Amino acid sequence: MGGTGLRRLLFDFGSDTIRMTVDGSRIRKAQEPAVVAHQDGGGIIAVGTAAQRMLGRGPEGLTAERPFSGGGVRSQKLAQALVRTMIARMPRSRWQRPEIVVALASGATALDRRAFVLLAREAGAARVAFAQLAACRALGLDLPLFQPCGSLIIDVGASQTQVDLMSLGRTVVSATLPEGGDALDEAIARRLRESYSIMIGPTTAKTLKHDLLGEGMSDAVLHGRDLLSGLPRALRVDRKEIEAPAHLLAEHIVSTVQELLRDVSPELVSDVAERGIVLTGGGARLRALQQHLPEALGLPVRFDQAPEESIVAGLERLFEPRVRDQLLRRGA
Ligand SMILES: Nc1ncnc2c1ncn2[C@@H]1O[C@H](COP(=O)(O)OP(=O)(O)OP(=O)(O)O)[C@@H](O)[C@H]1O
Ligand SMILES: [Mg+2]
């Protein structure tokens, strides 16, 4: 791409991770943990990976926070710091002021839209546009989005689980469960506190979840604080001891899907029966979901190699002519 003309930065603002890609060049991609560390009532200390390391490790008065949640902006100021930093890291020489495209969840309010427009403008965008997030995800997963054919997608993110039945380029029905990877981390930490009187931080809980429930390791050693003595303590944890919250999430997803399918036409249900369900988002890596969902729903369930990237993969296809007309809306 030359030195003139508008460059496009396309964003999936996840509550756990922000993913960005530059239109036209498949090489330039970036992702950052969606965390900002700041002094209480004061300045920003660190963003992204550096801030994530500070989670639970700061001195009094330092807070590490996530600026996005459930598809919306929670803190304009913190979100701003993160987005600016990500854009500033992109090679600059050829930069014009970019167009920023945001994958916007269907549940987003006018206020959410406004917050994203403001965010993009303050980060230096010349123009802002929105793309329907659910449609981007379906495109990124290579589903026949524009065909008269039902595709059922379950995205297990950090803050929530989103279930969408898509056909003819749109969401036909959808449901949002306010549970995802974060809820599992909290449940794991709570269980260990109750069973072993040991307190662990959010990063330790997350690592444990990845190793035992995602990668399938049978046990792992963690370090935490003994609640009685107040001293550091090591503990070996078996997978079985922390599996229950993941099974509970699977059950909640199953009942959400059952309820959703109850209200849709027999044609769409038969598409789903034939083609199965696609499981995506970082939570798709949970073995409990991969194993339990096909059994409980009696449907084939597909999951991909890089499940957290389906939305950016769809954003990258947004400017194919047929796709652009159907999915892009100018924001400001
Ligand atoms: N190997 C793994 N095993 C289990 N969980 C995993 C694994 N890898 C990532 N996750 C979890 O997936 C979640 C992040 O997924 P994703 O990146 O799709 O979320 P997000 O898009 O940032 O959040 P949201 O969509 O809720 O705003 C986190 O809770 C993370 O711990
Ligand atoms: Mg997400």
Number of domains: 3
Sheet-strand content, in percent, reads: 25-35%
How many helices? The count is 12
Q: Based on the coordinates given, report the CATH architecture of the largest domain.
A: 2-Layer Sandwich
**Which strand order do you get reading across the main beta sheet?**
3-2-1-9-10-19
Q: For the residues shown, what is the average pLDDT?
A: 93
What is the global morphology? flat
Q: What's the CATH C level of the largest domain? A: Alpha Beta
Query: How many runs of DSSP E, i.e. beta strands?
Result: 19
Gyration radius, in Å: 21 Å
SS-based class: alpha+beta
Helix percent band: 25-40%
Give a short account of the largest sheet.
Answer: 6 strands, mixed
